[in-house]
Predict the structure of DNA-binding protein.
Amino acid sequence: MKSYLLVLATGDEVTSGIAEFAQQYQVKNAHYTAFGDATSAKFGWYDKDRKMFKLSDINEPSEVTGLVGDISLYNGKSFAHTHGSVATSDGICHGGHLLELIVGPTFEFYITVEPTAVYKKISPEFNALVVDPDLEK
């Protein structure tokens, strides 16, 4: 097991930042938490009946009140899956599956990498990635 601190700067995009980290370090299994500030964010709520996301755009500065996720392997490449929430100036929280978040002014990931790989596959029932405990490649 190994721990990392990944700090992103103003203007960085969070989902691409964690994806780049995972690729660079060839992460096969990890979990993370994070917090910071956002200038904008986009979340999705997965509609299982329609098999697609309902989108929620936050186009104002906000505080990241929580963010959690994991990194696993899908088709042989590191794949990050993140859920989170942000609070806008009125105190209302918005969240779900994180699709995009632009940092402003700082963002901190605390990442724990595990030695044993975890694999994902597409569930035909939901058209979404799920952990496959039997998959080895």
